[in-house]
Amino acid sequence: MLRDTPTPRSSHRFTRRLGLALCSAALVAAAQTPAMAQETVKVGVLISYSGISATAGQSADNVLKLFQKKYGSAPGGHKLEFIKRDSTGPNPEVARRLAQELIVREKVQVMIGPDFTPNVLAVAPLVTEAKVPAIVPGAATQGIIGEKSPYLLRTFFSIPQSVRPMAQWAAKNGVKKVVIVVADYGPGQDAEATFTKTFTEAGGAIASVIKVPVRNPEFSGYMQRIKDSGADATFVFMPIGELSLAFLKAYSDAGLKSTPMKLLSTGDVTDESTLDAAGDAALGVISAGHYSPLHDSASNKAFVSSYLAEFGKTPRIALTNVVYWDSLQVLYAGLEAQRGQKFDPDKFMAAVKGKSFDSPRGPISIDKTNGDIIQNTYIRKVERRDGQLHNVEFDVIKDVAPK
Q: Rounded to an integer, what distance in angstroms lies between the CA atom of residue 351 and that of residue 332?
């Protein structure tokens, strides 16, 4: 007999069956939720662990340890697996081969790197085809993020973000005539063009432009040209490291530091990683940069304090450390936005574009259209504080666009 409602006895059986069914469903859900929550997301780290920027790898590893100590290792419930490869510096063939290995063999879903412009250009088609978001912690050339691949993001800076504010500051602070000295390669040429355009539009004049080869330059030969230029300031762009140190030494040895001529630069020239080696030759240099360990904010004080407690004072904290910290902020934000969901590269990109972050360098945001970074540029002067050289911020240009 068919019944529309169960009898008391059948009702008991029905309730029991319903209870078992609900219990089974709950067990299935419980089993599925952790599995989904603990989906492993593979992150390729393609940066320099050797070569001219070998310290970048050490900085990245230290910052990763510090970041995960504070924020854990499962953003959005996703377990992270980091797979590291050494790009060896600006080597596009190596970068392309390793990126292909990370994408095809290791099946990484996100990448931190590469860290040089030629490497980014070599890898861009690969991350586009595979839909692998790549967070670029280097490569300052403008016009590569967003234009070479929709899956590129940048946490470093662009040349105009340093050079344009420096030219604007110079024009507003009594500098009338400048001699430009740049390393003769892509970023240097970019720096020259940006400074010239900005400074002349503000009413300044360019006395001369000196282009220095990136391999084995003899800087002392350029110092007489600087003296003879009739300029009241020298603007210099050199990459971090040997070229910057060699220029500062030659400038000081030529006696130019004792003249009224100002020495203006991008932050690369007086980066904290090389300030101790530069010594007194760096004193008084005015630079435009994006981070100083003396930056006065609660976030930076906490970052510096925890980093020093964990890793000590050597090597010194520099912009590179903060760039990797912010790369992880972007990574975690993109994964947190997909909590409980399977990783989706397009959702990742949509989640981080337009997002703002509280960085040790100050407020930053990722441009909602092209994925490039928007950040403050600080005008700093090298001074000795407590027996150590520092870039001391004394002016700020806020929310500088990457172009």
A: 11
- In terms of domains, do 299 and 273 share one? no
Q: Is residue 188 part of a domain?
A: yes
Q: What is the pLDDT of residues 10-24, one digit of tens each?
A: 334 433 443 343 334
- The span from the CA of 289 to the CA of 330, in Å, is 21
What type of residue is 43? V
Residue corresponding to tokens 């861009």: 124
pLDDT tens digit string along 327-336? 999 999 999 9
Is there a domain that residue 14 lies in?
no
In a domain, 6, yes or no: no
pLDDT at 347: 98
How far is the C-alpha of 190 from the C-alpha of 185, rounded, in Å?
9
Claim to verify: residue 236 and residue 336 sit in the same structural domain? no
Contact status, residue 133 vs residue 334, Cβ threshold 8 Å: yes
Reported pTM: 0.88
Number of domains the chain contains: 2
Residue 200's domain is classified under what CATH number?
A: 3.40.50.2300
In 197-271, the DSSP E strands lie at: 205-212, 233-237, 262-266
Report the relative pairing of strands 373-385 and 388-400 from DSSP bridges. antiparallel
How big is the chain by its Cα radius of gyration, in Å?
A: 26
Domain limits for position 394: 160-289+379-400
What is the per-residue pLDDT for 18? 35
What band does 54 get if pLDDT is binned at 50, 70 and 90? confident
Residue with tokens 């980091």: 82
Task: Indicate if 72 and 123 belong to the same structural domain.
Answer: yes
